[in-house]
Predict the structure.
Amino acid sequence: MSKTTKGVPVPQQSAEKVEFARFRFHPGPIGRVQQILLVFLTVSSATFALDVPSYFGLVVFKQQAIGLFIGLTLASVFLGIPAKKESTRLPWYDFLFAVLGLVVGLNVAIRYPALLDTQAFFTPDKWILGGIAIAVLLAATRRVAGWALVGIVGFFIFYAHFANYFPGLFYSNSIPWKRLFTYLYLDTNSLLGLPLWVVVSVVLAYIFLRQALFATHGGEFFMDVSLSAMARFRGGPDAIARWRMGWDSNPR
């Protein structure tokens, strides 16, 4: 498809190419680091989804798996998704954010058992890294989901600290920054809670299954089974065709 601008046809980019343009892939050493992060994210997520550590008698907290997932994901986001859509180079602040995201994630993945024993104490290694983690997560969320979600999360963080200044029903006791950052960073009801564990252990497993079926043409097998079972019924072929169109249009 093309459109005409001042009598000159200009080819239009497809939706797939426009979506692909959101991401950047670096040449040289940074590109290799980017690939290693993505591969390690996939392998580590598959390892925890299959519960491989238990087969070797290793005790790994769920929160350690989530911390590793957060660190690798944040580093990959800042290396792969630019702050500006037209940017292809890696500015210094993206590199800094990628390093900080990896640090706050690996800190949980490596030190969580020790942090758990002293979780009631708001030491600098907890609330400082907690504040950095929240800031980096908000920056990554802005790049992936836009300002709306950042504004909602930012408002509730602001409210938790300044609730004593709100009137009427919104009045509450304020939470000090040290306690708030520590809670948001390390508590199992916050960042290291059930939603991210579901992503690590369930959602990624289904993504792997879908990719495996697509790579091995498993979808064609299920198509043949569906046709043999439902093609003779009224409306069966039409439903199968709609399902096949959805599969082919979004293989990943």
